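Page 42, continued from yesterday. The earlier attempt failed because a stray header line got pasted into the input along with the sequence. Redoing it now with the clean sequence only.
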Amino acid sequence: MADPVLTFTEKGIFCPAGGFYIDPHRKVDRALVTHGHSDHARPGMGAYLTTHAALPVIRHRLGRIAAEGIAWGEPRRIGGATVSFHPAGHVPGSAQIRVEVAGEVWVVSGDYKTEDDGFAEAFEPVAAHGFVTECTFGLPVYRWQPQAQVTGDLLTWWQGLAEQRRPALVAAWSFGKAQRLIAALAGLAPLPGPILTHPAVEAVNRVLRTQGYPLPDTLALDQARPEDFAGALILHPPSAQGGPWADRLADAETALASGWAAVGRHRQGRGAMRGFALSDHADWPGLNAAIRATGATRVVTVHGYTGVFARWLRDQGYDAAAGDHTPPRDEAD
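This time it went through. Structure tokens are written below.
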């Protein structure tokens, strides 16, 4: 993509007028970061700008960095560009970044979902001439059920196991998905047992609670007693599926909470018995609705089914192109 506002480089999306990069994947002097997931907030940048809400998790993950927070919607002049950050609905603090140069407006979506999950700041469409959109789930097969239905199904599954005094073991990403599940299930109380969390999940819980996000108390696995496991819901990162603590739970039933659970081979690849298709990314209808809401005529697709989705958009009358060719990411849902 070549444009007066944004261009793609080997380091990531670059704004020549402002001299900054958005979610760069190599070291740069100045990075504007949409949110705290590791494929967007990487170490080694000279300076970071992100939302006040995203900054605590980014500091937790990256350590000592030169970083500044900015309020939602606050315009900031950087060189010849004016930027502002707007809610993306993906995870707490996640933002779309609006960039204006000489009257031309582009929005970089970061990761986003259009369903309000009641925990992260809800997605807000931003009017633009051009839109850089993720398309992790940019195929028509991906159509999510409402969160209330999915979490209700998960609760029913958990209740059945709790009646047998068996633990329910759920793989969910340590930042975003796990907290979304905890908050949603708390709204369905009374619960059949305690919620236990892997230390990586509990560390993020503590950061978000300090910020004021409404998370009920949970018990870290490394603080749990043997009797705490009977009938418990245990949330852990997918990467910890086979950890030594899991070896002690031979009677547990396993599940994957992910958009990828909508496709059986992804769930089976994670070794999960059950799947709950709960994603922090927009599905096919959500992607299309979000693009329409911007009013943009030019669209660049990134992160996922970029070529397929760009072709679809061209068929709908957009000036659309694939901005990168990264494969769909079943490790970030």
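Notes: The radius of gyration is 20 Å.
Reminder to self: strip header lines before submitting.
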